[in-house]
User: Which sequence fits this backbone?
């Protein structure tokens, strides 16, 4: 902040107080300087809470060490890690993100489904179990609602993206 010619009055973990009028702030310059040093600008406590919820959901869905999400109750994990009521978090999430926590979870799950389909190591049934879907039909319905494609159609698309080297024809 001092390199940006701001007078720093007080620094605490996650907070800086400077003695400059609001009109003298160049928020883009401040944000850029923070990012260059590995920090990010959070506008307030609520934004930080929602960012932590999003990180938790992403970690549970994409980096879960468990064999299956069917063993994990995402809502309970969110409550446990935030220490706040689900109703409050849901309302706060919707107001800041413009979508519900449930829709965010679905979006993340569908991205994980796509990844697992492309890796082609699991069947659709195994993917449904791994991500905690009650059935293959439930997964298929959500997948189609989000992507417009069925999982099996999506799986078929990926096999047509590349041509085998020996099948490429000279022009």
Assistant:
């Amino acid at each position: 902040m001092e390199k940006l010619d701001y007078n720093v009055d007080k620094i605490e973990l996650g907070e800086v107080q400077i003695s400059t009028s609001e009109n003298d702030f160049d928020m883009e310059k401040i944000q850029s300087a923070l990012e260059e040093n590995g920090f990010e600008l959070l506008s307030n406590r609520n934004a930080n809470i929602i960012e932590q919820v999003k990180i938790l959901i992403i970690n549970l869905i994409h980096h879960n060490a468990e064999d299956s999400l069917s063993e994990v109750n995402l809502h309970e994990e969110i409550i446990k890690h935030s220490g706040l009521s689900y109703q409050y978090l849901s309302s706060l999430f919707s107001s800041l993100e413009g979508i519900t926590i449930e829709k965010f979870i679905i979006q993340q799950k569908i991205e994980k489904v796509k990844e697992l389909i492309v890796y082609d190591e699991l069947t659709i049934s195994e993917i449904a179990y791994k991500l905690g879907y009650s059935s293959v039909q439930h997964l298929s319905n959500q997948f189609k609602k989000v992507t417009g494609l069925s999982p099996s159609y999506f799986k078929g698309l990926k096999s047509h993206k590349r041509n085998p080297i020996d099948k490429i024809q000279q022009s």
Summary: The first helix runs from residue 27 to 36. The chain has a mean pLDDT of 84.
